[in-house]
Specification:
This protein is an alpha+beta fold. It has 2 domains: 9-92, no CATH class; 98-188, Alpha-Beta Plaits (2-Layer Sandwich). 18% of the residues lie in helices and 43% in strands. The chain is built from 5 helices and 8 strands, in the order αββββαβααββαβ. It has a 4-stranded antiparallel β-sheet with strand order 6-7-5-8. The protein starts with 11 loop residues before the first helix and ends in a 14-residue tail after the last strand. Residues 1-10 have low confidence and may be disordered.
């Protein structure tokens, strides 16, 4: 499996599946917020002034989000069509790779952390360390954090990510890091069991 997955019917079965259990029993959860203009003559509220959409693809067998898949919208014959697409720089690594667990620290600017206490602290620290990867793709566990002076926060974490080799796992962590990354250990884990009917990708 090499190259782009987008618009390739021949490889669609390779990426249109859960990256953990390989099930193809998926759904899209679409969250929409918008402001619609009201037409005073007809009372129609159809023209969006402002809109925000967030789509999350989820596996119905293991209930995990699928960050290697995204929902795209197209205009076809005057109507809007939605279609699942693979994220090119992520899908092959996640579907064919295996889980790796890293023990690491990330030193970030204190201004990057919105909150370091309370119920939002874990997500805030994970985002400060790895951005969207830290809250959408990686499984992160913030063990603790330390303030160094007034400007730096060092976040100590366990991170699970999917990759095809130790080298690739290190490269993904380095690329996602938003601060100074130090990996103290990196070890492979066993793949979760495939769902019933979850055939390996071809």
């Amino acid at each position: 499996m090499e190259g782009s997955a987008a618009d390739s019917v021949g490889t669609q079965s390779s990426w249109l599946r859960c990256y953990r259990c390989w099930s193809q029993n998926l759904e899209v959860q679409l969250h929409y917020e918008g402001i619609l203009k009201v037409e005073p003559d007809t009372a129609e509220a159809v023209e969006p002034i402002e809109e925000v959409q967030e789509a999350v693809v989820q596996c119905l067998d293991c209930m995990h989000d699928q960050p290697h898949l995204s929902l795209a919208f197209y205009e076809e014959n005057g109507r809007r069509v939605s279609r699942i697409e693979a994220v090119d720089d992520r899908w092959e690594r996640m579907v064919t790779g295996m889980p790796w667990v890293a023990s690491c620290t990330v030193a970030v600017d204190g201004d990057e952390v919105e909150s370091c206490s309370g119920p939002e602290a874990a997500d805030s620290l994970a985002f400060a360390a790895f951005g969207d990867h830290g809250t959408r793709e990686f499984f992160t566990h913030v063990r603790f954090h330390k303030h160094e002076g007034d400007s730096r926060i060092v976040i100590h974490m366990l991170v699970e990510l999917y990759a095809r080799s130790e080298e690739e796992a290190s490269e993904v962590l380095e690329a996602a890091s938003r601060g100074t990354l130090a990996i103290t250990s990196l070890a492979p884990e066993s793949r979760p069991p495939a769902s019933s009917g979850g055939e390996p990708p071809h």
